[in-house]
Write a structure and sequence with these properties.
Layout (H helix, E strand, L loop, with lengths): L5 H5 L5 E7 L2 E7 L2 E5 L4 E7 L3 H6 L4 E6 L5 H9 L13 E3 L5 E3 L4 E13 L12 E11 L13 H4 L9
Antiparallel strand pairs: 1-2, 1-5, 3-4, 4-9, 5-8, 6-7, 8-9
């Protein structure tokens, strides 16, 4: 009999590609820390690493686009999680179109939404000396635009377990 870890299974969440545009620059990264956080009004939060190129663009962006990746989109996850936007134009390698305020919408991803950034807050582990600096910032989003309804069978989602072996394009 195989031992199961219910907490590990529950925390094996879906993976998202989050994109942003501001100041004439586009950015995107792979995100595993994201969740609905309110029903009325509908709200969603995505957590971006402060070491990430996408974070630097997103903190100036009025909108972020959140793409839910399918299990067969590991190559897209590798691009957005394994390459750094400081060195590589990720958007030269994928199909995309400009969405609200230029926020990139990845055309190969069927399930996505664009959210207006309503607020930002620090999370993660603080720095030394008792200060509360965080290694991730949460972006609180309200629904502004979304994909059309998906028809047919919903495909399997890409999960953390599927990409846990990826080497990040930047330090965590």
């Amino acid at each position: 009999m195989t031992e199961q870890d219910p907490f590990a299974e529950a925390s094996d969440g879906p993976m998202f590609a989050v994109t942003a545009a501001a100041g004439g620059e586009r950015a995107g990264c792979l995100v595993g820390f994201a969740s609905q956080c309110s029903i009325h009004p509908p709200r969603f939060v995505v957590w971006l690493s402060t070491a990430n190129h996408t974070y630097r663009v997103a903190r100036e962006a009025p909108y972020l686009t959140v793409h839910l990746l399918r299990r067969d989109q590991r190559a897209l996850a590798e691009l957005f999680g394994g390459e750094c936007g400081d060195r590589v134009d990720k958007f030269a390698r994928v199909g995309w179109r400009p969405g609200l305020e230029g926020s990139p919408v990845l055309t190969d991803v069927r399930t996505w939404f664009t959210g207006r950034v309503e607020g930002r807050f620090e999370g993660g582990v603080g720095g030394g000396g008792g200060t509360m600096g965080g290694d991730h910032v949460g972006f609180l989003l309200s629904l502004a635009e979304r994909c059309p309804p998906v028809e047919g069978t919903v495909p399997a989602l890409l999960r953390y377990e599927d990409v846990g072996d990826l080497e990040a394009g930047h330090p965590a």
